Amino acid sequence: MSFLSPEFAYLALVFFPIYWLLSSRPTLQKLFLLAGSYSLYASWSIKTAIFLGIYSAIIWALGTWVQSGVNTSKRWKLSASFLFALSLLFLTKYYEFFRELLLQLLVQLGLPAFLPAIDVIVPVGISFFTFQAITFVFWKYQSKVKVSLLDLLLYLSFWPTLFAGPIIRAKDFHEQLHGRHFGQPLAAQKAIYFIFLGLFQKMVLATWLATQYVDAVFKYPEEYLAIDTLHAILAYTLQIFLDFSGYTLIVTGFGLLLGFTLPLNFAQPYLANNLREFWQRWHISLSNFIKDFVYIPMGGNRRGFAWSQCNVLIAMVVSGIWHGAGLGFLIWGVIHGLGLVLSNISRQYVPIRLPNFCGQVFTFIFVAFAWVFFKASSVENALSLLSRLNASMGEFKTEWLYLWLFSILFMLLSKYASWLEVQWIDVVRRINFWLLIPVLCALGYLLIELSPEGVPSFIYYQF
To answer: Per UniProt, which keywords does this protein have (predicted)?
Structure first.
C-alpha cells in the first residue's frame, strides 16, 4: 500500500487518533505501532513481512551476542554479524546480477560454467533496513545498553522509514522511543506543512516532469532530437529531487505525528558550489552512513591525501552499487567518485577558486549528466540517449518554455526554502483548528485534481 493511495489516507485517519489515545500506556502503544508497521508491510507481501520479522529477531540476538564477552571476541562477533546482514542483502538483491557476470566471464575463458539460480523476492526497503540493522549491531558493540526484542522489531519495521529511509541510527531511535515525547505529536504544524509540501512535490511536480519530459525520451531515445534529450536530462534532475525529497518530507511529517524526529536528508543540494558539498546536502543519511561505515573504517584521510582519494572512490562505488544491481548504478558511483577525487585534487593543488555561481552551474551540470546512468534502464540505453546530443536541435516547442521557467523558479525557491518554511508553518499555526480541517481537505482535493492520472510510485521504493 502506497502512502499516495486513498486507502492509506483513510487508514491514517483511524490509526493516528487511536495511537495518540494510547499514549498513557506506552507498551500497548508500541504494540499498536508494531502491528500497524507490519500490516502496512504485509500489504506489499506477506512473505517479506515474515522475512522481516525473522530477520529482526536474528539481528536482535546478534546484537546481544556481540555485546557479551571481552573486547577481542566482540570484534570478531561484530564482523560476523555484519557479514550475516550483508550476505542476506547480497543474496536477495545482487546474487543474480553477479551470477550472470561470472557465467559470462567463465564462458569467455572456456571454463565450465554453472552457478545455481536463486528465485527470491527482493523485500521492499531491504537496503535501508539492512543498514539500520548494521547501526544497531555496532551500537550494541559500543555500549552496554539493553534493548528489548519489541524495541528492535519496532526499529527495523518503523513504517515511516521502512520503505525508503531516511536511515535513522539505532541509538537515535532508541532514545526517542524512550524519551518523554514518545507517542505524542511533535510540531504538528510543521508535520502538516511537510506532508502537504511533499505530496505536492511528488503528485504534481515530479509526476508532471516525468510524464511530459522524461519517460518517453529515456524509453525511446533514438526517436528524439538533441534538444529533447537535454530537456529530458534537466527534467529528470529536477524530478528525482522532487520525488525523493517529497517522500522524505511526507515521512518526516508522519514521524513527527508519531513523536519522532527523523534525520535531515536534503539541504537544497542543487545549490551546492562543488561536488563535495553536493554530497553533504543530498541523501544525507546515506552519505553519513557511507562515511562512518565505509570511508572511515578503510582509513579515511589518516594515511595521506593519495590514499584518502582511493577511499573516496571506493566509498562512492559502494554508494552506487547500494542503489541496485546494475552496471548503470556502478558507473554512476564511479562517475561521482572520480568527480570527487578530481575536485579534491583541484582544491589541494590549484589555488584558483571559481565564483559561487560558476561552481553551482558546473556542479549542477555534472550531477545532471551523471543521472543519465542512474535513470536509464541499461548502459546501452544511457549511451544511446547521450549519443542523441549529436542529433539536430529541431524546432522550438512551447513546452520547453514551461520547463525553463519552472527550473528558474525552482532554483529561486530553493534559495529561500528555509525562510518560506518558517512563513508557511506560521500560517498553519494561525489557522483555527476547526477551520484547518476543511482547509486541509480542500488542499487534498486540489492535489488530486492537479496531479496527472496514474501517479507512479516513489523512485526510491525500488532500492
So the answer is: Acyltransferase, Alginate biosynthesis, Cell membrane, Membrane, Transferase, Transmembrane, Transmembrane helix
